[in-house]
Amino acid sequence: MEDKLKILLCEDDENLGTLTREYLEDKGFKAELFADGEAGYKAFLKGKYDICLLDVMMPKKDGYQLAQEIRAVNSDVPIIFLTAKTLKEDILEGFKIGADDYITKPFSMEELVMRIEAILRRVKGKKGKEVTVYKIGKFTFDTQRQVLFTEDRSENLTTKESELLSLLCAHLNEILERNFALKTIWIDDNYFNARSMDVYITKLRKKLKEDPSIEIINIHGKGYKLIAPELETEDN
What we know:
Elements lengths: L5 E5 L3 H13 L3 E5 L2 H10 L4 E5 L7 H11 L5 E5 L4 H10 L3 E4 L4 H20 L2 E6 L2 E4 L4 E3 L4 E3 L2 H12 L4 E3 H9 L4 H18 L6 E5 L3 E5 L3 E5 L1
Helix pairs in contact: 2-3, 4-8, 6-8
């Protein structure tokens, strides 16, 4: 029997936090609830979590600060923000920090579980993909370890960066359709997620810019294209 997937839940609304934890446990997860960001961070350092659900507005340490500190320790663990804020600037701020998803309050528990399961499926699915290593120009991209490296240095990618680069590599020198990428990685092709993807494309361009033979170009009205001189793959 598999161990239960463990969730770090940080929510300062006691009623909502308790309800969410109980619902998640009813669905077969192991959820640990903390009422502020500081307590959540201490727990994260001690425990091993499969996913983090972080309220944005919390005492002692808000969700953005907590997410940045978690990302400094672990660049891979998926993060979902629980937020009452619907301003696009706030949501984009969350994605820039490296969030995998956000859900606005009030939310349905069913939708929350659906989002969690979709992210965990993607994370697990990465381990089963046939192609695990891509060679793009002077870079080597290890999809399982989520690392992009050259002879001189290596850089850890976030889950979103890794998923997006994997899709671009799988469609090398072809158009990666915008809606396909959004639905594959973000589940929903809404405005906020589309803006988030633009942020991640910009991040990937910066990471790849030291090799001038590699370019990610916009195809107006369609999507993106990763252009590289040659690309080798290594299968499992």
